[in-house]
């Protein structure tokens, strides 16, 4: 019996797709749905029993002191987004020049990205330590009289974590902007130069407009990762000194208090916030693409 | 005159670049110097980057006090399984989405992209429960499975598959290749640069992953480097010289890896940004 060509393609396509889709279903789509259900339930880890509790978990979250602390910190964290973008663009422009040794500098700027959050946070933890180098420098230059406990002081701890995230993020977005810059056809600059455009005009009329899609993508990515910040907070401060963030509380509720339902309710709220920011970003992103298409 | 100005600008650029690189590598330099310091060196003026008393005692202590070699091995196992999964599954999934014509193709593609547009964080708790139910808690596989399919990877591979000329495929079909052979012998080898880029990206991601392994591993003998390192504080009772030595040991392999693969990082993003 001969199977029709159409059917054959179908079978082939799905034999390629079955394993990836199965894994996506189990670890990506199923959690989306199950997470909502769990946020309305009480889950017992030992008996695997789920009990429906209605809005109890949400009620708990909205009365939970650390929800507001972590929400505020998450919002504070977003201050770093425009700073990361600004410095990343500057760095990308700087290292995108054709000068000897540029590859080395690119590598050096990217080192904090590639070494990962744990190594970076551990290194900075000792810089911010009471006996650490930061206090030493500040005392030596007579800026402060006595050492400050940067990471356990409520006034400074969250800003230290934010600084480390900023410092770690710049190199990452620099590479994205470099890729964006290198995608701009060089003929455009050549034509502009022939028409007598100055370097400054070239930057504002060619580089910036054509970098816009990259910028919006980078903004979206860094907003989302600021809202989802966890590692620096966990490793630098352990969530103490009022530094907890939303994802930190999701982790804390689930894996130190074993309140999976409450943790799920908080992650649904976190997802809601993420979706709102994604929509805002995509509104800009969408218009950016439309304008490009019209050209 | 013009030339003079150019040289001035170049000198300014280099000074700026050097200062900026110091800003980015200073913490590592300090950790490196501290790792060679003796007990008498740490107090007092912490500013000295060159140790007064040079010692490798701290490194010896790292290897005798914690299973550093075991952490390395665990990281390698997790990373290699993870990279293999990501590369194979993304290559498989992307092929029909780019090259085969069948009903529902676009629907599946959009469905795959959906989680990229709607970032959902609930998966942490649910995936933990799933891992418990699958009896995979405290196994290497549990670390790898939730990240085994990368949506970015499927997207990247699809973009590159799309650029392969149709004629090559047709020629292979005429020569009697079946669809699997067309993929394996023609299309797959032609997108090697994308495969390498994906392998390198996922290598860095798995090597540095922290939160998920922390959740699903209980036995410290199975800890990857990142989780092991994060627990050092309690083990060494705030002895920063020893912790520095551990940080240095953990940093070197990823730096060496990056040194050899760095061009792929830019190339990979170039492909992704292009849209």
Description of the structure:
The complex is a heterodimer of chains A (295) and B (275). Chain A is an all-alpha fold. Chain A is flat, with a radius of gyration of 24 Å. The model of chain A is unreliable at 288-295 (pLDDT under 50). Chain A starts with a helix and ends with a helix. Chain A is 75% helix and 3% strand. Chain B has 275 residues and is mostly helical. Chain B has 15 helices and no strands. Chain B has helices at 2-35, 39-42, 57-65, 68-99, 105-117, 123-133, 140-144, 151-162, 166-174, 179-190, 192-208, 211-216, 225-230, 232-235, 240-274. The two termini of chain B are 44 Å apart. Chain A: It is a multi-pass membrane protein. Chain A: Residues 71-281 form the ABC transmembrane type-1 domain. Chain A: Its main location: membrane. Chain A: It comes from Oceanotoga teriensis.
How many strands in all of chain A? 2
Low-confidence stretches of chain B: none
- The amount of helix of chain A comes to over 70%
Number of strands of chain B: 0
Family (chain A): Belongs to the binding-protein-dependent transport system permease family.
GO biological process, one term (chain A): transmembrane transport
Protein name (chain A): Carbohydrate ABC transporter membrane protein 1 (CUT1 family)
Transmembrane segments (chain A): 12-33, 75-95, 107-127, 210-230, 265-285
């Amino acid at each position: 019996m001969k199977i029709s060509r159409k059917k054959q393609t179908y079978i082939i396509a799905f034999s390629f797709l079955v394993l990836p889709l199965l894994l996506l279903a189990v670890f990506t789509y199923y959690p989306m749905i199950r997470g909502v259900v769990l946020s309305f339930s009480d889950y017992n880890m030992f008996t695997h029993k789920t009990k429906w509790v209605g809005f109890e978990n949400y009620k708990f979250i909205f009365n939970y002191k650390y929800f507001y602390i972590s929400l505020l910190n998450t919002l504070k964290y977003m201050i770093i987004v425009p700073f990361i973008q600004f410095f990343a663009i500057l760095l990308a422009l700087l290292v995108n020049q054709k000068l000897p040794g540029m590859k080395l500098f690119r590598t050096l700027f990217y080192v904090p990205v590639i070494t990962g959050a744990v190594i970076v946070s551990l290194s900075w933890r000792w810089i911010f330590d009471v006996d650490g180098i930061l206090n030493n420098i500040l005392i030596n230059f007579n800026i402060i009289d006595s050492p400050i406990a940067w990471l356990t002081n409520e006034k400074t701890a969250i800003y230290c974590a934010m600084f480390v995230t900023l410092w770690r993020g710049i190199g990452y977005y620099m590479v994205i902007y470099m890729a964006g810059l290198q995608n701009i056809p060089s003929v455009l600059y050549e034509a502009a130069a022939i028409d007598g455009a100055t370097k400054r005009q070239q930057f504002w009329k060619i580089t910036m407009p054509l970098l816009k899609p990259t910028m919006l993508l980078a903004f979206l990515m860094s907003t989302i990762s600021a809202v989802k910040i966890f590692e620096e907070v966990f490793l630098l401060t352990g969530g103490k000194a009022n530094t907890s963030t939303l994802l930190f509380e999701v982790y804390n509720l689930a894996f130190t208090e074993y309140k999976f339902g409450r943790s799920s309710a908080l992650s649904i709220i976190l997802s809601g916030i993420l979706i709102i920011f994604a929509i805002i970003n995509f509104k800009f992103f969408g218009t950016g693409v439309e304008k490009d298409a019209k050209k | 005159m013009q030339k003079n100005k150019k040289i001035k600008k170049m000198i300014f650029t280099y000074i700026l670049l050097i200062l900026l690189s110091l800003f980015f590598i200073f913490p590592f330099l300090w950790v490196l110097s501290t790792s060679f310091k003796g007990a008498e060196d740490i107090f007092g003026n912490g500013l000295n980057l060159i140790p007064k008393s040079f010692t490798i005692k701290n490194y010896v202590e790292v290897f005798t006090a914690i299973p550093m070699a075991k952490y390395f091995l665990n990281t390698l196992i997790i990373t290699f399984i993870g990279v293999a999964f990501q590369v194979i599954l993304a290559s498989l999934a992307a092929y029909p989405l780019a090259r085969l014509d069948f009903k529902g193709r676009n629907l599946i593609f959009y469905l795959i992209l959906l989680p990229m547009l709607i970032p959902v964080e609930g998966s942490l708790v649910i995936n933990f429960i799933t891992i418990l139910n699958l009896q995979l808690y405290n196994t290497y596989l549990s670390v790898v499975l939730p990240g085994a399919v990368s949506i970015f990877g499927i997207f990247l591979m699809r973009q590159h598959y799309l650029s392969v000329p149709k004629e090559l495929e047709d020629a292979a079909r005429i020569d009697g290749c079946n669809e699997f052979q067309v993929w394996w012998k023609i299309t797959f080898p032609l997108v090697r640069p994308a495969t390498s880029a994906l392998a390198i990206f996922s290598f860095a991601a798995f090597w540095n992953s922290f939160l998920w392994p922390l959740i699903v591993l209980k036995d410290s003998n199975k800890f990857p480097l990142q989780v092991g390192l994060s627990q050092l504080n309690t083990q060494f009772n705030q002895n920063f010289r020893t912790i520095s030595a551990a940080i240095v040991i953990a940093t070197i392999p990823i730096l060496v890896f990056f040194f050899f693969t760095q061009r792929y990082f830019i190339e990979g993003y170039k492909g992704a940004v292009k849209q």
